[in-house]
Amino acid sequence: MALVKSVRGYTPQFGANCFLADNAVVVGEVIMGDSCTVWFNAVVRGDVHSITIGNNTNIQDGAIIHCTYQKAKTVIGSNVSIAHNAIVHGCTVEDNVLIGMGAIIMDHAVIGTGSVIAAGAIILPNTIVEPGSIYAGVPAKRVKDVGEDMKAVISRTALNYPMYAEWYK
Asked: Which of 21, 35, 62, 126 has the greatest number of beta carbons closer than 10 A?
């Protein structure tokens, strides 16, 4: 059973049909929309600031979602896929975004709608990722626009995770 814990008087809130893997951790000031999934060893830690997550967002194995005390909350939109071992910290991730495996998004960055952050990329603090862009590298830079093929991948990934969650229920 996942660890869901109140911290500083805040208890995580979940929309309908969310799935939390057995060893997922969700604590504190977290509001999660409908049909979200939080996978094995993932941590959503709203102990020092708020974390708001839209609908149909998946937080994959080993990912960490956190904030900075009194300075940087985390806001994640709908239909977002946060891949294995990614770190999303004190930033805004708009709708229909794919964050690749091991990517790091730092404080006050804004990831625009329909964007892709490549595996292993590091988005530095205060970076604004233009909607529909692919960013890669360390530090991450704009590589190109998201094409129709990647739009399909973003959509398919977001839609598949609620299906995978059904296998565990």
From this structure: 35
